[in-house]
Structure formats: C-alpha cells, structure tokens
C-alpha cells in the first residue's frame, strides 16, 4: 500500500465552518472519507539514507509518535486554522500545554504576571512548582489594567490570562493586555478554554499564544483529556522542541476525538451560549438568587467589552444563592438532570460548588478576596432541553 497523503483542503480563504470540518485532513491511498487514526508508535523508512535524512530534518515525515503523528497533525492543523494561528502543537492535557509553554519559553529568574482568577491547577503550577525553578509569579486582579502594569518588572517575560474567568466570568481586555505586554517586551498567553475560537480569537487581538484544554469544549462530549498551544511558528516551534523531548504529547486516538469535536464546535458553542443567556436571565429573576455572573447580562461589569471581544457569551454561568454553603449544597443535591461534577464544556450540563471543589485548595481569605463565596454555584450549560434544566434548578430553589 502506498501511503501518499492527499490534502483535502488548504486553509485560506475558507470560512470558519468549512475549516472546522475540512482543514488539515490527510487522505491516504485507501480513499477513506473520514479521518483515519494512525495508532502506531513509530514509522518505517524506505532506506537507511531516508532514515538519516529524516533524523537530520532534511526530509519531512514521521519518525516516532512522541514527535509527530498524522492524526495528531490533522488536529493541530485544524485547530491552528480555527484560531487563525500559524501553527499549533497538541499536548497530553491542558496543563501539559501550559507547562510546556512555560518551560519552553521561560528560564530561571524570569517572572510571570497572571490573573488571580485562574484555573486551580494553573495557580498551583505557577505558585508551587515553577517557583522551585526560580520562575516567580505575581497574581493581579483580572480586570485592573493598572495592576497588571504595576506588576511588570525588568524580569517579566510573560503575561498569562484566562478570559472569561472561572467561576466568576470576569472578562479581560485582550487587546489592551497585548499592547501592554508588547510595550514592555513580554509575551501575552491567553487560555481560550471557555470561549474556544468559535467565540473568541485572541491571536487576532494581539495575543502571542493561545493555550487550550481540549478536554472541555473542543471535545465537547467529555471523552478525552488533551490540550494545545497555538500561535506564531517561532514560538510553537520552541514548545514543540520541549514537548518532543519531555514527552507530554497527545495520543492519536484522543487527537481523532478532538478532530471530530472541532467539526461541531461552532454549532455547539452557539447552542451553549443561547441556552446560557436564557438561563442567566431566568436565574436573575429568581428571588433566592442574590447575584448572577454571566457576561451576556447587561448587569455584568464587562458586558460591553465581552460583546465587542466575543462572538457570543459562552456556556458558563455562576450565581450566588442566599443562605451560604448549606443552601448551595441543598440546591446542588436537589438536581436530577445536571451532573454534579467539576468538569465543563460538555453536552451534559454540570453543576459544581467552587468553594469546596475546584477552589477548595485556595485559602478562605484568598477565596473571599477573589469573590468566590460559600453560596456560589457554577453551571456549565449543556445541550439538554432548557425547560428541563430550569425545572431541575427550580426544585432546589
Ligand atoms: C480544565 C482547564 C485547564 C486544564 O486542562 P486539563 O485538560 O484538565 O489539563 C486549564 N485551563 C482551564 C480554563 C480549564 O478549564
């Protein structure tokens, strides 16, 4: 069998939806319509000379799946096309994407400025692990541009932000942060997990790198753990260099799942967003609900910014119930449809109590300072009938 690969579609000038189902597809001589999964750890060469040329980087092609794999490459090229990135590197998890970006681009003595309201493991990675190797992080209030500016010092190399934030859905001004970063000789890295490129394209707003947990919306059905880094090739090449050496690469099977996930990404993100907008408005009208955090609501402090920066407002809502932890747990335990799990970005709606789960490791003082109260509940709105989700919550309210 010859393994000549045919490219189905080159990127430009196709629209987002075409790229989502076509970009990066390889077709073997078998003529398969759907993308194949290459479950092979290594690749063979036609001759000793070809092996030598491949190892020397003089001839393109695969060597070993810790380095490259055709199914993984299809996912990378498709996600790069959707993010408007020159290149993309897939990783074993979202945390592997963040770790690899930091270890590839930073060295001992460098400094990170990051938003305080980050994914819990990212806070721990920066605060407890990178610090051991002399990379210090200053955490600042996400929406306070002057705090970001004041925290930048002579050793600062990276600004790191997640927007909208988890769980309070605060929105950072990506273009303003990119301008600040570049003015001070730093890179801006954006965790685009909550919006995905279907709703927000940070690279177009000036960010240098986008990191993803593809575990969330890129998969969209909660099946696999994975991640990715996208941006200028000069930067992703550095990340790839680290990754192929250190090893947290994506498996071909997971890449295939994510590749198929990308095909329905925009449809799902639009549906998640529409359902969340409706649910957020409904929650705001409930007497036992003290406050609703959702960028699509006019009451959200960065509603205007979110409307400019995002194509829609996403699927994550958080809200505070009166009565603290007891009332919050009672509401969560009364649900029958929603899954009680910390995961998000799934067709199945999920509900979680951040103060005792995702943010339990954060000290009570830091939690209070971050605005994550005992009565706060986070919902990732799935694709069930909205009336069933409302009825589920109404039972607990
Ligand atoms: C889940 C998540 C991560 C980490 O991703 P994993 O795939 O679990 O390693 C990073 N950032 C955000 C915003 C997340 O939600």
UniProtKB/TrEMBL annotation:
Pfam families: Cys_Met_Meta_PP. It catalyses: O-succinyl-L-homoserine + hydrogen sulfide = L-homocysteine + succinate. The modification N6-(pyridoxal phosphate)lysine is found at residue 216. Its EC number is 2.5.1.-. It comes from the Bacteria. The keyword Amino-acid biosynthesis applies. GO terms for cellular component: cytoplasm. Its cofactor is pyridoxal 5'-phosphate. InterPro entries: Cys/Met-Metab_PyrdxlP-dep_enz, Cys_met_metab_PP, O-succ-hSer_sulfhydrylase, PyrdxlP-dep_Trfase, PyrdxlP-dep_Trfase_major, PyrdxlP-dep_Trfase_small. Pathway: Amino-acid biosynthesis; L-methionine biosynthesis via de novo pathway; L-homocysteine from O-succinyl-L-homoserine: step 1/1. Gene3D superfamilies: Aspartate Aminotransferase, domain 1, Type I PLP-dependent aspartate aminotransferase-like (Major domain). CDD domains: CGS_like. Keywords: Amino-acid biosynthesis, Methionine biosynthesis, Pyridoxal phosphate, Transferase. It is an enzyme of class 2 (transferase). GO terms for molecular function: carbon-sulfur lyase activity; pyridoxal phosphate binding; transferase activity, transferring alkyl or aryl (other than methyl) groups. The keyword Oxidoreductase does not apply. One of its GO terms (biological process) is transsulfuration. Belongs to the trans-sulfuration enzymes family. MetZ subfamily. Catalyzes the formation of L-homocysteine from O-succinyl-L-homoserine (OSHS) and hydrogen sulfide. Homotetramer. This is O-succinylhomoserine sulfhydrylase. It comes from Thioalbus denitrificans. The lineage of its organism: Bacteria, Pseudomonadati, Pseudomonadota, Gammaproteobacteria, Chromatiales.
């Amino acid at each position: 069998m010859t393994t000549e690969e045919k490219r189905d579609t080159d990127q430009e000038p196709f629209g987002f939806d075409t790229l989502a189902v076509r970009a990066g597809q390889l077709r073997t001589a078998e003529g398969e319509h759907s993308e194949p999964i290459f479950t092979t750890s290594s690749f063979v060469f036609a001759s000793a000379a070809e092996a030598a040329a491949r190892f020397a980087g003089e001839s393109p092609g695969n060597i070993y799946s810790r380095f490259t794999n055709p199914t993984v490459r299809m996912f990378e090229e498709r996600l790069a096309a959707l993010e408007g990135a020159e290149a993309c590197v897939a990783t074993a998890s979202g945390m592997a994407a963040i770790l690899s970006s930091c270890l590839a681009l930073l060295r001992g003595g460098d400094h990170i400025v990051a938003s305080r309201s980050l994914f819990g493991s990212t806070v721990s990675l920066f605060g407890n692990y990178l610090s051991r190797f002399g990379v210090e992080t200053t955490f600042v209030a996400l929406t306070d541009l002057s705090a970001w500016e004041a925290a930048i010092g002579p050793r600062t190399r990276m600004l790191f932000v997640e927007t909208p934030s988890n769980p309070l859905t605060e929105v950072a001004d990506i273009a303003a942060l990119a301008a600040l970063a570049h003015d001070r000789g730093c890179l801006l890295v954006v965790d685009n997990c909550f919006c995905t490129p279907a709703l927000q394209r940070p690279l177009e707003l000036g960010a240098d790198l986008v990191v993803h947990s593809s575990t969330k919306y890129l998969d969209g059905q909660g099946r696999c753990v994975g991640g990715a880094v996208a941006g200028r090739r000069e930067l992703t090449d550095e990340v790839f260099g680290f990754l192929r050496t250190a090893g947290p690469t994506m498996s071909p099977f997971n890449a295939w799942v994510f590749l198929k996930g990308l095909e329905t990404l925009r449809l799902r993100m639009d549906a998640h967003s529409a359902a969340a907008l409706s649910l957020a408005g409904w929650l705001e009208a409930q007497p036992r609900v003290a406050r609703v955090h959702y960028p699509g609501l006019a009451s959200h402090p960065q509603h205007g910014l979110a409307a400019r920066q995002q194509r829609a407002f996403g699927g994550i809502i958080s809200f505070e119930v009166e009565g603290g932890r007891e009332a919050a747990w009672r509401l969560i335990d009364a649900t029958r449809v929603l899954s009680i799990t910390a995961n998000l970005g799934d067709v199945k709606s999920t509900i979680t109590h951040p103060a005792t789960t995702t943010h339990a490791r954060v000290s009570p003082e830091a939690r209070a300072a971050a605005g994550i109260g005992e009565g706060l509940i986070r919902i990732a709105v799935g694709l069930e009938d909205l009336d069933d989700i409302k009825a589920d919550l109404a039972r607990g309210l």
